[in-house]
């Protein structure tokens, strides 16, 4: 289990992380992308409104933001051709797929997603495992 981004908001679509992912593939162990709490600046900028800070933090984490962020991260990994490079890599996506199951049909209709990826659609990836709970 790893946080889905570093403190500086770097995600794992950058090739500098690929040696770690290659080892996970070689060892045949899944990587569980766990949400990382947003910074106070992100909460204030993207989730604050005419309600309490507690509500804004809730929106930015378990109520919405974590699911949105992890789902987007997995799409970035897909578009970066990570699964072409490491076809045996297993990524675990918790909480019923973090919005992906009900967004995939729409996402897969977007031309940019398949352009140049050499990849099947994300819904056809057998290595994306969804954990219900």
Explain what this protein looks like in three dimensions:
With 133 residues, this protein is α/β, with parallel strands linked by helices. The protein has one domain. Helix content is 47%, strand content 9%. It is built from eight helices and four strands. The protein has helices at 18-27, 40-47, 53-60, 65-79, 82-85, 94-97, 100-108, 111-114; strands spanning 2-3, 31-34, 91-93, 128-130. Strands 1-2-3-4 form a four-stranded parallel beta sheet. The longest helix is centred in the middle third of the chain and has 15 residues, at 65-79. The protein is globular, with a radius of gyration of 15 Å. The two termini are 16 Å apart. The model has no long low-confidence stretch (mean pLDDT 84).
Keywords:
133 residues; alpha/beta; 4-stranded parallel sheet; 8 helices; 4 strands; globular
Q: Alpha-carbon distance between the termini?
A: 16 Å
Mean pLDDT: 84
* Number of separate structural domains: 1
Trace the largest sheet across and list its strands.
1-2-3-4
Strand and helix order: EHEHHHHEHHHE
Provide the β-strand percentage band. Answer: 5-15%
| Major β-sheet annotation | 4 strands, parallel
Which spans of ≥5 residues are poorly predicted at pLDDT below 50? none
Helical amount among residues, as a percent range?
40-55%
What is the number of beta strands? 4
How many helices does DSSP assign?
8
Task: Indicate the structural class.
Answer: alpha/beta
CA-based shape: globular
State Rg. Answer: 15 Å
